[in-house]
Prior knowledge:
seven-stranded mixed β-sheet
Amino acid sequence: MTALVLQARIDSSRLPGKTLLPLNGKHLIFRVMEALGALSVGAKILACPEDSVSRFTLLAEEAGFSVVPGPKEDVLARYCLAIRRSGADRIIRATGDNPFVFVDAAEAINGEALEQNADYAAYTDLPYGAGVESVSSEALLRAEREAKTPVEREHVCPYLYNHGELFRLHRPPAPPRWRDPEIRITVDTHDDYVRALALYKHLASLPPEERNHGEKVIAAYKSLFAGETK
């Protein structure tokens, strides 16, 4: 069974409280969950720090997610708690600052990971903020036992892709229709947020099932911000 595990926290040094900022009438984190809710998975989990549970619980319930709290800085441990709670043998890892995540690309890379029995899979050359990672639970649990550095613990997957001798890695370039690495669609700064407000308003005119399709997002971004890159 594949579980979607979305990590989120409230405090951010560059844009404090960004996950709770409004985005077309809802909190940004809700928009992320709303988009990812279209994925065909056995469980949808919001993995948040223990000190954020009260702020996220109602939003998660509204979006159809369960909440798994864990350590703030040791996000790898948080993911492994979600694995143990859900019983998933694979997870799709997503982050709470990406409301324009490409859901069609997420489905595709997870399908490739399953076909190839990859421990770790992710497309390269997507717009910044568009992608997810598909990871086997066994590999993440091993990383939890063996990873030592703060970077390996906070960013979850570096231990896997930095140890290709230990894990089966699948890191292909994104298909051409989704490939545009110069575009930035994450929300990490105030400027990102201003762009996100305009981009989401533009995409809201599309049917809900199309708003997080990669080609639609790229086309909308280019129509609004011609010449802008990350």
